[in-house]
Structure formats: C-alpha cells, structure tokens
Please model this.
Amino acid sequence: MANKSIDTIKYGLLRIIDVSGFTIFDPVVRLLFGEEPAKQTSKILKYIVIPTIFLFVCIWLWASIAPTHKTKSGQVPTPSQVIETVETNYRQYEREQEKKTAFLTTGSERDAQIKAAKERLKSLEEESKAAQSELTKVEESSLTEIENNLAPFKKEIEAIAAKLKTLTSSAKTEQTALADAIAAGTAKPETLIQAIADFETQKEALTEKRSELNKQLTEAREDPDALKAARLRANAVANEIQHTNSVIDHYEKKNREYQVNELMTKADAAAALASSSKDPKDILKAAKDQVRNTKKIEDVQEREYAPTSTVFWHQIKRSIFTVFVGFVIAAVIAIPIGMMCGLNRIAMACFTPIISIFKPVSPVVWLLIFQIIVGAFFPDPENHPLFVLSSTLPFIQDLGVNPAMVFSACTVAMCAVWPALVNTALAVSSIEQDHLNVARVLKLGFFDRLFKIIIPSSLPLVFAGLRISLGVGWMVLIAAEALSSSDGLGKFVWDEYQNGSSFSFANIIMACFIVGIIGFFLDRLMICLQRLVSFDEDGATV
Amino acid sequence: MSQQKFVEIYNLIKEYPNPFGEDFRVVDGFNLNIQKGEFVSLIGHSGCGKSTVLTMLAGLNEISDGGIIVGPKEISGPGPDRAVVFQAPCLMPWMTAYQNVQLGVNNVYPHASKKERQQIIEYALSAVGLKESMKKYPRELSGGMQQRVGIARAIALRPSVLLLDEPFGRLDSLTRMELQDVLIEIIDREKLTAVLVSHDVDESVFMSDRVVMMTNGPKAKVGEILEIDFERPRNREVIFKDPAFFEFREHLLAFLEQRAHLRGDIRVHSRGNTVGYSTDAVTDSEAAMVAH
Model:
C-alpha cells in the first residue's frame, strides 16, 4: 500500500512537470524516488549540470568584459552591480510599505511606533556622525595619497612643457638664420624646409606624450576605493535617516488619524466660537464652516496612501495587468473572426487584405493612432465612467488605470490580434474532413457542429496562436509603455535612460531581466493551458 | 431481381471536370436495386470507384447524373437514414465513446426522453461489446475498439441503410474477424439493409447476400453479380467449411483476375453457375460478345 501511494505521488509530480513543460527536472524527481540512479544521474549531468556551468561561464564573461567598456553613461554594470540595484529597488518597495503602514496606524499603536522610530533615528544619527568623521579622516588621508600619486606625472608634464619651450625658441632662431642665409645665397631652400619639417615632428611627439601623461594624471586623480566606500556608507546612513524621518512624518503629521483629529478639533473650536457669538454674520459663517469641515473630515477619512511608483511590485503588476487586458481584447476579437474566416471562404477573402496590410504595421504607429482615436473618448479622464469605475474596484484601484494604460492595452491588442486570428482561421479550416463528414451524416445543426466539432478540434491550434499572441503582446507592451508614459516596466526603462544617474544603467539591465523572466512565465502559462486543452496528449483529462 | 426494391440506384454517373479535354468519368451507368434487409457487397480493384458509389449513396459525394432512391424518396445530401461506418473510426478524440454515440442520437431522436436516448446509446454500445468502456476516450481504446464505437454510432441511428466503407480495412486480420462476427450478429438480429465496400473476397462472401463485382475504372459499372444463399444467421465455422464458400470465392477471384476489365451485360450467377479457376478461363466467344 505504502509503495502504491509513493508511486501515486511520484507520477503525480512527473505529470505536473510534464504539463508545466519543465521536463528538465524529470530525472531529478525520478532520482529522488530511486529509479535507475545511474541513468538519472547521467541525465542530470548532461541536461542540468552542464547547462548550469555554461550559464555561469556566460555570467563570468559578462562580469569580466563589462568593466572594460566605458560608455557615456558610465561603466557597463557587472552582475554584482545589477544584483545590488535589485536590492536597492526592493528596499524602495519596503520603504513604501513602511510609510503606508505608518499612514494607516491609529491609537496607542501609533504612539508606540513613533517612540520606536525616534529611538531608531537617534541611533542612526550617532551612526551617521561616526560615518561622517570616518569619511573626513579618509578624505584627508586620501588627499595626500592622491597628491603623492600625482606628483611624478605633474613633474614629467612640467619637464615636457619646458622642453617644448626650448625646442620652439631654438628652432625659431635656427630657421631665421637659415632664411637669412638663403636670402644671401649661401644656403639652399631645401635645408630650411627640412629644418621646419624636423621641428614639426619633434613637437608633435612631445605634445602626444604630454596628452598621454595628462590622461594618466586624470586616472590617478580618481578617488581611492577606501574613500568611495566611506562615502557610500555615509550616504547610506544619511539615506536611512531621511527615510526614518519620513516614516515619523507619516506617523505624525501625515498620518490619517492625526489629520482627522486635527480637523475635528478645529471644527469643534469653530462650533464653540459660533455658539458663543451673537453676531448673525458670525453665526452664518460658522454654520458654513461646519458643513465644509464635515465634508473635509469625510474626505480625509477615505483617503488612501498615495505611494510613489516602485518597480516592485507596482510597475510589474501594472505591466502584467495591461498585457492581460490587451490580450483578452485581442482574443475576443481574434477568435470569432478567425472562426468565421476558417468556416467561410468569402469571409476569408474579405479579411485577407486587412490582415496582410495591418499585420506588419509597427506597434509605435498603432500607439500614436490609438492615442488620437481612443484619446478622443476621454476628453475629461478624471470624470470618465471607465476610470471612475476602475478606481472603485478592488485590486484594480491600486494600479491607477489611466488613458495611457488604455492606449498601451489597445496597442498590445492590435499587435497580438494577428497571430491568434491567423492561427484560429488555420485551425478551423484544417479540421479533418472525416470529422466534418461525420457531422454531415449525422446532420448536426450549425451550433452542434460549432460547439461539438469545430471548436474542440481547433482548440489546440487556437491556443498555440494565443500563446504567440501573448508573447508578441508582452514585447509590444514594453515599447508602448515607454512611448506612452504608462507607468510600468517600459516607462521604468525609459525614465532610467533619460535620468542618467549612476544606477540607471544597472537598472535598465535589471528591467531587461525582469521583462525576460516574466515573459518566460507567461509563455509557460500558455503552454500549460495549451496542453490542458489538447486532446492528443495524455494530459487532456488532467 | 423482381422483388420489391428498397434502394434503387439508377444509371449513376460520376464525372470530374477535366480542363484539358473531356470530363473524366469515374463511374458510368451504375445500376443496382437492393431489397429491404439485404446485405450487398461492392467488390472490385482499388480505384474502380466502389467507394465513390458508396459516398454518393451516403450523400457525401455529389451525383453527376442518374439518381438514387432510398425507401420512398430520392436522396439529396447526407442524412442519418444512411449512416456510414468509415474506414477510419472517425471518432471525436475529445469525446468519450458514449458521447461519440450520443452525438448522432440526440439529433435523430429529438423527441425521445433523456432516459430513452440513454437506453438507445447503451444498447448500441453493448451490442458491439463495449458496455464496460463507455466512459473511455478514443485514445484509451485500441483500433478495433474504436471501430466498434464507429459501428455503434451508426447502428444507434437505426438507419434505413447501413453503409460500410471498408470498415475493417485498417485492422489486423484477427481483429477484423472479431469485428466481422460482431457486425454480422447485429445485422442478422436487426435485419438491417447494408452496403459494404470491400476488397476482401472472404469477407464479402461471408457477410453478403449478393456480391456486386465492379469493372475496372474509369467508367466503372456493375460487371457481374453473385448471389450467395447461405442461411442467416450466419456462422463463421459453418460457412468457412462449406464447399460452396470456396466455389463463390473462386468465382470472385476469377472475376477480379481475368474479367474485371471486360464490359458487357450484367450477368447474375448463383450456386452451381459460377466461374472458377478450375472450370475455364474466358472463352473466345464470351470475349467477342463483350468486346467494347
């Protein structure tokens, strides 16, 4: 019995691996269950260990080549720098979360938190002081170090300058003398020309050497590593202090409960003033104020924390949401039209020119067209029902649906529609004639034929098309976001490119990996779906 | 053949357009009458047009000229009254055996209650011996079992004529015999009218009341007809030992080997009036008579 249940687990796991497409881990599972260890080990070695080594070789190549290429926006980041930016970006996300909890905390919990945060701030300030004094020390010592490093170069450069000076003056006298001699007829003109040429080559050689030395001087002037590290440390502490201050701010002045209380005391004071006053003007004003204050208090009570956009997870979530909206629009358009084209030659003939002409159009063009056409529907986005509705739905309200997102989604849909459409048409038109003959003999009605024969038999190919569509959509989305400034991974990359801080390049590389990894998982998801609907495979009934 | 006709095929012609000359006639003037409850086999060389005749009878293939009457009226297009068992099982891979049979039943018995339909489907499936495998998908069934589902789907429709288009052509010989026995049992019990296209001589002799031999195509037509008068219900053991079986078999082989290319009046042969290998080859006079 025990054996049987273990087998069930084993084959269940293998089935999951098979359906999800990670067949590469198949031998690992089999090895864990002790099936033919020698064979599995050799498989693991061949298909897991060697590829992993290859990957590490690639990363090592990247790490060693990257620093040798200097660009306008700094050095090409190494893998470790990219990992560092991932951490930085994730830290940003955590900080936003901290501020959000601070904003929402209420009652005695808030007081306790303020106390804790202030203590933290105190210790941080001490740390900062230490870091600052360390920094000044390092700065001083490194200043002399740098001077020492520079001294020999400076000396040499001065020597060359002196040499140049003497060379120029001596050449001048020599040349005038020669010119005089030529005029007098005692020398040939060729000697003068020769002398000038010689002088020029000597001068050129010296200038070249000088510029070479200058270059070395600039390099030598660069801060030593110890100084850089000290600066980074000091910066990090300063950064943390700033953040803690901001958190405290969110516990205190910016806290929601605090703001509400503030407004309430103000309103109470106004009410008290009004009740004690006898002047009708004052009474009128007080009554108006009261109404205004209640409204204000209500507003503040409903206010949500407005986070700054971070890559983790806000921009990633938004990108994924946008691509799915676009993909669903594409599928809803492509599948029925594709079926129509597959079923009817006239429909096919009607749509073929449209498909052939619009399929190759660049997403950038579509984006601009949608910005104009769809943009006309949102003259006043703040009050448009679509955006008002989306700001009340759970989950979606955090994403901040805006016209830019709609344009991006439309662009995704426009570009993703074609593979799905073409594949659906192909799937429907290539249904086995035998199956259609059966339908004819059984005299199935149109809907029976559609739902019992045509759709099930075309599903695998339709899903293959949808898979391509999602891949295309994801690629298009990043470009569309960059261009339409719809908050997301594409915009992140574009902003980093425009921003040009020392982390920008590493951030772009990080985004490249995030986009790639998410794209990979989207593809896997579609493969799973495709395998679940395909009846040829054993996975059909899973 | 003076008895009442149930199926009448009259001067059936199938032409395919040929853009570079005369239209290409595959079948030219095929005449055949079938009585109710009769089992007729069409036999002939590959490509002689026997399947074309059957698909025209099924309504799956357009009729160029001539006509086919089944029961009271002329056919136009396919219909469940002429259920077909195809060479490939043609099951929907996304449906269970039960659902595959149900596909047609729902359509043919629109007024039957759910219970009645279920009974029909279950009866058809148990008739072909698949009572235990109703919930299985085609991929879980062997080729022979899949073809059994194909047969069940056809007989569940209670067709006026059952059309069998080389139904056992893709099966190994053991499975083929098994399925022939299954089919003959059903046909004998239900007294179904059936048309079988086959190029297996033993199969046609064993199963049919009449074997229609077709001349070679193009312009194929009925060459000879052999009447086979074994008792029904038929039993493989008995028939395969009967000397007449060999006589019929020899006659058919002789036709296929020697006379299939000849054209002339349709001759009807029956027991004692057959032409086998041993008797003689084609006589000169016969050849002269049918010279075209």
Observations:
- The longest helix of chain B spans residues 173-190.
- Chain B has a mean pLDDT of 85.
- The radius of gyration of chain B is 20 Å.
- Residues 7-77+200-290 of chain B form a domain with the Rossmann fold fold (CATH 3.40.50).
